[in-house]
Amino acid sequence: MNFLQFAVWGAYLTSMGSCLVTANMSSKIGLFYAMQGIVSLFMPALIGIIADRWVPAQKMLGICHGLAAIFIFAAGSYGLSAGGDVEFNRLFTLYSLSVLFYMPTIALSNSVAYSALESAGMDTIKEFPSIRIFGTIGFICAMLIVDATGFQYNFSQFIFSAAIGITLALYSFTLPKCKVNRSKETKSFVEAMGLDAFALFKDKRMATFFIFSMLLGVSLQITNGFANPFITSFKDIPMYADTFGANHANALISLSQISETLCILLIPFFLRKFGIKKVMLIAMVAWVFRFGLFGAGNPGNGVWMFILSMIVYGVAFDFFNISGSLFVNEATDESIRSSAQGLFMLMTNGFGATIGTLGAQFVVNKLVYSQSDIASQISGWSSAWYIFAGYALIVAILFAVIFKYEHEQT
Q1: DSSP state at residue 369
Q2: Helices 374-402 and 353-364: crossing angle, nearest 10°?
Q3: Which of 90, 195, 207, 391 could form a cystine bridge with 201, CB 3.0-4.6 A?
Q4: What's the DSSP call for residue 410?
């Protein structure tokens, strides 16, 4: 389940930018990635309520994946048939309907996994991480297939994603049954939507943490949206035209996900040794290097900088996302813990990622796509990456000064 869950996403998440460039929608890339954050503001909570009360989670997972697959297939079919006459409004609407139903499945798949493990009498904390890794493996495999087939440059990647999604939709109905709470006890709208967690903003330290989570969340989707178009653009420069990186950007970027898988194993040690503040600072500095190395590198003699940027990504992503989630789990009362996790995701993948992709699109449009020749565009890309790196550095400095936390080493 986890393998297929993230293979659906890996089929287009890192390569959609290059596909949109081919379809003459380079100035709209940020909108497509921002939509994932926008729907994450409300759909996971709404679908979660349905799964809790009326429709078992494994069936809800199948329904959502089925609908998401239908719409992404429609988007891909339209894109392929329209050729060079793709209309933004039609494509964007079909894509948006797909992510509307896909984004809630990330939380649903976790719920199904937890339920199955608990029903089997297994320890979820001990057993789930080794299962979740298969999700990253699925993501990487999908990326590499899209790269090897040449789908990264066209809408066939959507068709491929749809095929995986339909497979998982059917498979979901064979998964172990999850319980539903048919109790007549009613919750307020605020409780049902998990909005009661906003009470945590009364605590100065938690408020500071959540605000910086949003500010760092700005960085999360920037490279997913723009790394592939950036690296691929080097194909138009003769000295880089035949390099592996310029022709296989997705394969190069897959090193990021491999690094992510390995860095998960480092988190327990770093949290025990340094505490959440230093671990989050390490993540922030890693984002500085992630962007800065893109700005300085190229797929020729500077490809080592691209590779190092991919390796650094594991630290940047995991030390922020997973460590932050663990901190929220430890710092909040059990009665509000699930809602607090939802709030963390809302601030990072909702508000942060949406603001980040739209802001990054503005910068890229201004510095890159406004230029007519490829040399000026490459120079613009470097400037854009350095701006993103500077932003991450400012956030890191402010976090170091403002966030107060004393760690007791265990």
Answers
A1: I
A2: 140
A3: 207
A4: -
Sequence-distant (≥ 6) Cβ neighbours of residue 150 within 8 angstroms: 156
User: Phi and psi of 147, rounded to 5°?
Assistant: -65, -50
Helices (H), 152-263: 156-172, 189-192, 204-217, 222-232, 244-247, 249-263
Contacts of residue 203, defined as CB under 8 A and 6 or more positions apart, other chains included, come to: none
Eight-state DSSP code of residue 177: P
> Would you say the CATH fold of 195-405 matches that of 1-177?
yes
Q: What one-character-per-residue DSSP string does 96-130 give?
A: HHHHHHHHHHHHHHHHHHHHHHHHTT--HHHHHHH
d(CA 282, CA 61): 35
Question: How many C-alpha atoms does 239 have within 13 Å on its Cβ side?
Answer: 7
pTM: 0.89
Residue 189 and residue 195: Cα distance in Å, rounded? Answer: 8
Looking at domain 1-177, which CATH architecture does it have? Up-down Bundle (1.20)
Please give the helix or strand (H or E) that residue 274 lies within, else none: helix 267-296
Contact between 156 and 24 (Cβ < 8 Å): no
Residue 80 CA to residue 73 CA, distance in Å, equals 11
Q: Show me where the domains of the chain are located.
A: 1-177, 195-405
pLDDT, tens digit (0-9, with 9 covering 90-100), for 370-404:
999 999 999 999 999 999 999 999 999 999 999 87
Q: Give the residue among 20, 107, 117, 85 at the shortest CA–CA distance from 349.
A: 107
Of 201-215, 323-337, 340-354, the least confident: 323-337
| 182: phi then psi, degrees, rounded to nearest 5 | -95, 20
With tokens 């503001």, the residue in question is: 41
Q: What is the DSSP letter of 348?
A: I
